[in-house]
Structure formats: structure tokens, C-alpha cells
């Protein structure tokens, strides 16, 4: 799974820093001046661990400290969607944390993100930033040697970031940054226990701006994308792995297939409606443990009807779906589920995605998905 995840991260990173600014057509060379100026940052971070469940209270006593290095590209209007979102920045970072607790150790993470301006003047910027990536935890749960670590049970974890940042100019190219954010790490139930880490964070650091104040390119004539008002049909298949409990260390394969109809309603949004089927092999193992031999065992396959929204950034789309099980003989969960997805169009026809399926706010499985648009 690791090589696949790394390739997906590289693909999404290239999309954010370069390809996302290209239209869904044959790619052409873009002059360096059209790509937009860069911003380089270095920030110190101070945090604490939220005791969001009694099972992690014994670990929520230290005050982790971290360091972040990042590079951002300022979108400049070389593509229409830049102006639609008021010229956001797209970037990649590296984040190091020392949890100041030998049970947790340290973590190393990298994420891709989008930073959108709320207020921007010649000297001041107030931005909201959101991103996702992968975190590495060398120290993790071990039933024999580190059973107190109920937060981290796998080396690889998904990383989510949300942040409010204030940048004030202190020199021609230099800015002082102050920030307030939340870092979240979780493996999406791939391995258990999976309570995850929530880190409210204060930041202070510096940014180096290649261009300040920011000057967008001459605005193009306002146009509506030709795909607005058109419908499409997506077919996809996915796979993921999960562990069902702490005592069973095996990883069980989870598959899904879906058909989804959608319509682009404006420059930024798609509305979608679809049907999908699931086969979770961990449920079959669970049934074998809990059902007496010879008794009827319900079907563990499930089918769901879902609807949702996709927020569009060139080739990239952030999806949020709400689904309801219409075939669910084995009642292992509630009647509804949610999905969050990061979808990237490699071509007009083919795309890849990383999805998080959720039951009542708890991660069920992380899936890698491939699909085609008809």
C-alpha cells in the first residue's frame, strides 16, 4: 500500500503546484513567469493534545513542539479559476513534532494545502489554510512493549490541517507570520487502536515573498466554462485495508464499486448522485467470531445511495458525500455514512482519488479509487 500512497501523493502534489492550473485538455508548456511567484516559510509551533476520549487522557499531559518548512505558489490569474477563488496559494510543507513523551516519540509529516485570502492589502494578509498529507510515526502502539500508546498504532497516518494565518510585512520581501490551527493525525482504522491525535497549535515564523505586494496578471475577459450546465457519468472502483480490533492484527481488504451521475452547476461546483456497493472482509471475520456454527449468517455486502457536492479547482476536486444504506443485511453500523474525497483528473476521461469513509464521525476505512468519466 505504501508505494501506491506515495505515488498518489506525488500526483496530487504535481496537480496542486502545476497541473491544477491547466485546463482539462492537452497540456502545453507554460512560461515560468505565468506560474506565479513563490513564498517560502519557516514556523515554530507549540501545541497540546486534546483528550477527546477517556482512552487518551493519560497521554494528554505533554506539550508537543514542532517546526514547519513550506513553499507556496501564488496563483496569479493565468487560469480563470484563480480569480474565482480570489487568487489562493497552493503549497507543500514538511512538519516535525516532538511530543515530549517517550510513549509517543516524534512524528514527521508532509502535506499539500490550499491557502485562501480573507483579507489582503499591500502589507497585511489574513488567510485560511486547509491541507492533507501523510505522517510518519516511528514510535507506535505495541501490545507487549508500548501498550499505553492508544493514540498511534501504525507508522503511516493521514494528516489533516486547518489554520488561520496573519502575515504582516516587516521588509520588502519579508513577512512575520502568526497563526492558530489544528493538526490531526489518524490512520483511518487501517490499524487499531485508532483514536488519533488532535493538536491545537500556535505558530510564529517568517515568510519570504518573491513578490510583495502581490500583482495578478491582467484579468482575462470573464467567461463561463463550457461544461457549466452539462451532465456527466462516473464509474469507479476502490480498495482499502482495515484492522477490526486490537487483538486481531490482520489487515482485511475492503472494496467498493460505484456509479455516479453529476451536473456542473456553476464555475466552482458539481452536484452528484450515485449508487455504490461495498464488500468489507473484516465483517465476515467478525461474524465468524460472534455467530454459532450452523446458524444463519447474514450477507456482509452492502449497497448505498448517496448524494453530494464537489468543489472544483482546475483538475482537482474536493468531494463530500452523504450516503444511506439501501441493502444492509448485517447491521454492523448505522443506516448512513459519510465520505470525504480528494479527486484528481489525470485526463478528461480518467481520474484517481483518495477517500475517507466515516460512520458517525469515526473513520471506517481509507480507500484508493480509480475511475472514468463518460
Output mean pLDDT: 87
Stretches where pLDDT is under 50 for at least 5 consecutive residues are 1-32
- Helix fraction? under 10%
Number of helices: 3
How would you characterize the overall build of this protein?
The chain is mainly beta and 374 residues long. It has 3 helices and 16 strands. The strands form 2 sheets. It has an 8-stranded antiparallel beta barrel. The protein has an 8-stranded antiparallel β-barrel with strand order 9-10-11-12-13-14-15-16. A hairpin with a 2-residue loop joins strand 12 (302-313) and strand 13 (316-327). The two termini are 28 Å apart.
List the helices and strands and how they pair.
Elements: H1 2-17, E1 38-47, E2 65-74, H2 80-84, E3 89-98, E4 106-120, E5 124-136, E6 156-169, E7 174-186, E8 197-209, E9 231-242, E10 252-264, E11 269-280, H3 281-290, E12 302-313, E13 316-327, E14 336-345, E15 350-359, E16 362-373
Antiparallel strand pairs: 1-2, 1-8, 2-3, 3-4, 4-5, 5-6, 6-7, 7-8, 9-10, 9-16, 10-11, 11-12, 12-13, 13-14, 14-15, 15-16
Describe the structure concisely:
By secondary structure, the protein is mostly beta strands. It has helices at residues 2-17, 80-84, 281-290, and strands at residues 38-47, 65-74, 89-98, 106-120, 124-136, 156-169, 174-186, 197-209, 231-242, 252-264, 269-280, 302-313, 316-327, 336-345, 350-359, 362-373. The strands form 2 sheets. The chain has an 8-stranded antiparallel β-barrel with strand order 1-2-3-4-5-6-7-8.
Name some characteristics of this structure.
eight-stranded antiparallel barrel; mainly beta; 8% helix; 3 helices; 16 strands; 374 residues; eight-stranded antiparallel β-barrel
